[in-house]
Amino acid sequence: LRRELMLYGIDVILIAPGVVQTPIWDKAEAVDLTAYERSDFLPIMRRFNEYVVASGRKGLPAERIGEATYHALTTRRPKTRYALVPNLLTDWILPTLLPRRWLDTILARSIGLSERK
Predict the structure, then answer these.
(1) What pTM, to 2 d.p., does this model score?
(2) How far is CA 43 from the centre of its chain?
(3) 112 burial level (CB within 10 Å; 0-12, 13-18, 19+)
């Protein structure tokens, strides 16, 4: 879409925020996992929930997203893409460079999905 709109002189800027620190992570921590009690997925869901909540708490403050958005809208020559993540290398660059299957395997191992039953 960014390139298609060039025909009309419209400059599209992508602002890609990663995890943002908000109160929603308190709700995620309190999620009810009883639906998984009798399934193979309970330990995986627990690990995944812990991972998500920890990531959320380490995310960027909402103000940082606002500042970057303001900058993108007011600077004379904005970048085409702003990746707003806590760690640019591990949260953006490597995931975009790694083959998808590798990334799937790494993420699966981190939450216990690679342990066969």
Answers:
(1) 0.73
(2) 22
(3) middle
Q: Can you give the residue ranges of every domain in the chain?
A: 4-86, 87-117
Q: What is the pLDDT of residues 31-61, one digit of tens each?
A: 999 999 999 999 999 999 999 999 999 999 9
* Helix, strand, or coil (residue 44): helix
59 CB neighbour count, 10 Å cutoff: 21
Query: What is the spatial distance between Cα 12 and Cα 4, in angstroms, rounded to a whole number?
Result: 10
- Measure Cα distances from 117 to 33, 39, 60, 71 in Å: 20, 12, 37, 50
What are the residues whose beta carbons fall under 8 Å from the beta carbon of 55, sequence distance 6 or more?
19
- The helix-helix angle for 100-111 and 42-57 (nearest 10°) equals 100
Q: 39: which 2 tokens?
A: 């399934």
Predicted local confidence at residue 7, as pLDDT: 94
Residue 79: left (phi > 0), alpha (psi -120 to 50), or beta?
A: beta
Tokens of 100: 């998808």
Q: What pLDDT sits at residue 117?
A: 65
